[in-house]
Amino acid sequence: MMLTRRTVLKTGLAAAATSTLAMPALAKGTKVKIGYVSPQSGPLSAFSEADDYMIKRFLETATAQGLDVEVVVKDSQSNPNRAAEVARELIVRDEVNLICVASTPETTNPVCTIAESEEIPVISSVAPWQPWFIGQQGNPNDPGSWQEFDYVYHFFWGLEDNVSTFINMWDRLDTNKVVGALWPNDGDGNAWSADVGMPPAAAAAGYNLIDPGRYQNLTDDFSAQINAFKNGGAEIFTGIPIPPDFTTFWTQARQQGFTPKVASVAKALLFPESVQQLGDLAHNLSCEVYWTPEFPYASSLTGESNSDLAAGFEAAAGRQWTQPVGFTHALFEVAADAIKRAGDPTDGDDLAEAIAATNLDTVVGNIAWGKDNLPPFAQKNVAKTPLVGGQWRRQDDGSFDLIIVENGNAPDIPLGGEIEALA
Predict the structure, then answer these.
(1) pTM of the full predicted structure?
(2) Could you report how far apart the first and last alpha carbons of the chain are, in Å?
(3) Strand partners of residue 388
(4) Please, are residues 146 and 134 in contact by the beta-carbon 8 Å criterion?
(5) Least buried of 184, 215, 297, 393, by fewest C-beta within 10 Å?
(6) Torsional sign, CA 329, 330, 333, 339
(7) 360 has which bridge partners?
(8) Phi, psi angles (nearest 5°) of residue 73
């Protein structure tokens, strides 16, 4: 039997000292300690710009509702090794009862892997479900060996949703259907470029992919990839680079004469600050949209609409709303709901059972595990949320608005305009 922190607590084994993690003191009282991990520094830090505001709001609301909670915040530094390290700190030193984690497999996966092994409940988000679920398996290439998890639960959309959203946008434009793909050698890039990602879906839709191979994050010269796309006649560009890499690539692409008719870029184009850095070069760039103030949902925690949530963030932060506002808030909506329903929220098994039984309408849509809109192997641990497509439009004052131009997978989310070709 694997000797974990929880088996030690439950059985009182004298061999507790041999556990990989130290045994914490038994929970006292009803206070629930929540660990929160996200990439607050490093190249993925844009994902965490709403964290401080959302955590502050959650604590204020929780206190007003009579919940005795504490949030211990950790920075993964955009590094998987550091993410694993802080997960251990939360479990051993901080003795948390629950972990919330967000933003790309480089942070979510190490945290969830550590917590699952130590039987600590986790609510995870902001990573496509395939690199999250498959990336944590002992053999990602052998579906027959994949195992469900007992303590970690994830909500977000999947690669199938993002790929179909991009293809739906491309279908509305007149192109030669040749796509240049820029995929990094990381969890997202490897998933996007595999059979669970874009290649089979693009081929089925009649698109030709030019894939020059994986590259390392923080590359400073994309000339080889740009030449491959130009020589192949690509009129469409796609990829899932980190924000600084896309800025480097797109600047070099325009300098070297690569001018596709449409560019749909996952991850890097989610944030207004990243787009703003490109100036005129960002006009009509397109991306996936997993949250905007236009989403027709409301908070289960505060009752706010999404437009109210965005306005509150903008007033407090003094800058434009960003997509993680919605999902950081939703993480704590699910956490609060599970804590309220758990028989003993300081007991990992009780809290994990409460999370698994969630059926909650949140600012990002309904979150419920066990639905049949996923393959059977993922249904227990993954809940899907809606996804649409948008374009960044430069305004007269130099700012950019993210306009929803594709909603085929989520027709209840209103369109704000039609897709336009790049100038």
Answers:
(1) 0.88
(2) 62
(3) 289
(4) yes
(5) 393
(6) negative
(7) 367
(8) -100, 135
Q: Does position 392 have pLDDT exceeding 60, yes or no? A: yes
Tokens read off for 204: 């089925």
Residue 412 is encoded by which pair of tokens?
């209840």
Q: For residue 34, give the nearest of 91, 72, 80 by alpha carbon.
A: 72
Query: Which helix (H) or strand (E) covers residue 81, if one does?
Result: helix 80-92
Token look-up 């800025």 returns 247
At residue 30, the pLDDT reads: 77
DSSP letter for 22, please: P
Q: Which tens digit of pLDDT belongs to each residue from 11-50?
A: 443 333 333 443 333 333 479 999 999 999 999 999 999 9
Q: What pLDDT, on the 0 to 100 scale, is given for residue 8?
A: 43
Per residue in 119-156, pLDDT (tens digit) is: 999 999 999 999 999 999 999 889 999 999 999 999 99
- For 384, left (φ over 0), alpha (ψ -120 to 50), or beta? beta
Q: What is the pLDDT of residue 26?
A: 35
